[in-house]
Predict the structure.
Amino acid sequence: MFEVFGIPSTALFGQLLIGLINGSFYALLSLGLAVIFGMLNIINFTHGAQYMLGAVTAYLLLNYAGLGYWPALVIAPIVVGLLGILIERVFLRWIYRLDHLYGLLLTFGLALIIEGIGRNYLGTAGLPYTLPDSLRGGRNLGFMFLPNYRAWVIAASLLVCFGTWFIIERTRLGAYLRAATENPALVRAFGINVPRMITLTYGFGVALAAFAGVMAAPIYNVSPNMGSELIIVVFAVVVIGGMGSILGAIVSGFGLGVIEGLTKVFYPEASNTVIFVVMAIVLLVRPAGLFGRRT
């Protein structure tokens, strides 16, 4: 074991790993928020509750349907994404032309309802979710011990995040999505059903939150409050990256997770506020965010 700036390498790299894991969830959640805001102009405060629903769905599939982690990783995002589509069709479609505040208040109310139902049926204590057998154990890298499941979370998050960025920014489908937000009449002229595209986009953003929730279930206890504890930080990440910026959400999510982890090593007292300090500095220097566009 060696030291870095007088700190044992195991402690430094251990916190760096924790930062990357937290950053993985920040990136996935902020990516879903950025997709929904960028394509629908809705500030989706229900995102934390939908993240929680992903974890709860995985828990229910395991304990009542006997389906393990890998089936849940596919089924839970689909189920929660379909619920998101229902929310979009019933509630959100009526407020697209209104001020952002209406969407914020509506989704905040929906989040309170979902979390209240969760507390009523699941209680407030966390529920355990077992690791998949294929990802148990870990590897000794010499300077630190790397659990297999943590490595999987980081790798899967990177793959999903940059895959989503590629689809939206580098494919024809992504071009249609971006065009539909700026000139829906023109996109309709190409024979594309814009309302259906908007609905599926919202469902996809919600599914990203549920996917993060399933991956979080074995690391954190499954709790109705797990989303509300995280959503404020994720909103800060989105603001730092730039509202609606896909790349900004990804880079800021992973970067701020690392900064938070390193802060726990060098100045633990500031670890709970460092992200908000960074947000304040970024807003002073660049109000649109690091990757945002000025309007």
The longest strand covers residues 138-140. Strands lie at 3-4, 7-8, 138-140, 145-147. The radius of gyration is 19 Å. The CA atoms of residues 237 and 253 lie 6 Å apart.
